[in-house]
Amino acid sequence: MSSFAGLTVVANGKRCSDWTPDTGATDGSGYHLLLIQDYSRTRRQVTTGEHISSHPFTVGGHRWSVRYYPNGDKPNCAGFVSLYVDLLDDTFEKPIDVQFDFSFVDPAVKHKKPANIGESGTPVPDVFSQVNSAWGREKFIEKDAVERWAKHMGNYLAIRCDIVVVRDHAELVLPDIGQHLHHLLETELGADVRFEVGGELFAAHRYILAARSSVFRAQLFGPMKEGATTMPGAIVIEDMKANVYRAMLSFIYTDTLPTMEKAEEDEEGVMWLQDLLVAADRYDLQRLKFLCEEKLSEHIRVSTVASTLALAERHHCRMLKEACFQLLQVQTPSCLQEVMASSGWEHIVMAYPSVLNELIAKLISLNQK
Fold this sequence. Notes:
Elements: E1 3-11, E2 14-15, E3 29-36, H1 39-45, E4 52-53, E5 57-59, E6 62-69, E7 80-87, E8 96-104, E9 120-121, E10 126-128, E11 134-142, H2 143-152, E12 157-168, H3 177-187, E13 193-197, E14 200-204, H4 206-212, H5 214-221, E15 234-237, H6 242-254, H7 267-282, H8 286-298, H9 305-314, H10 318-329, H11 333-340, H12 343-351, H13 353-368
Parallel strand pairs: 1-3, 13-15
Antiparallel strand pairs: 1-2, 3-12, 4-6, 5-6, 6-7, 7-11, 8-9, 8-10, 8-12, 13-14
Helix pairs in contact: 3-6, 4-5, 6-7, 7-8, 8-10, 9-10, 9-12, 12-13
């Protein structure tokens, strides 16, 4: 059973100096409460990108705090509450594997978690280290749901953060099948099929491709299969860049998103992610498509929102589409006019008129609140 690790009170949009100290949950698991009094005032005073941190507390022999963003930690999260856990230790010898969980609770009922409001745990531990000392949920729960809960609770919120220190990272034996399969891809050992993409040749393994993609399965083993059982003839892939195909193959073998050639914030990095999402959809790689969609949702800018929105609509990416809408909803009228005057927006109006209708409905709904 988790130990109580203290209470932080927020009033008038600020953390109170008086607080209930933790008892030092050294047994590896504990929970801290962040109590927000007069929630509606806090929501108005603390704008998007601004946060309130809890007082430090101890769980598993380590010092932690909770970061609370009532209006999201960035513009594309403005419709959500963002929550993070920060590791505050000054020094530590090795990384720490931690499971954490946020939920809204009723402190009057012994901090019991309700069954249906904002609960999001981490079944796979996150690794806290000197490099990555914070993890969290940028889109933990929609603000509308929080407001309904706060109204039910008399205009206050109690956020419970449960932390379980699983074990020292060095003690874990991490799965390495992805590393081994990637070695096969890099060395071409046992490869039995070759593809030509943008003038470059890629050797791969039919059974691995077929196991991961229904499209490759049909292409390599179905009635319309291409290529022989050995490698001499290359299957030519049209309408795709070589670096995108290389990244897609890397994902197929490792099940992880490959390292980007450019920074995620750069326009080239965004275009690379967009191309990779298109490739994932083309080859029915749903997990890769989701990972690209998630990354793109974090890096939408006014200059790229039109092309990203068109991409989301064309490839049925609901999460990415909503992220674009959220960014547009927080822009000034002049900025919206600039976006809608762009050639990218003209393409949306011509190709996907329903998108414009959805945006207008959302803007009207926002103005009526």
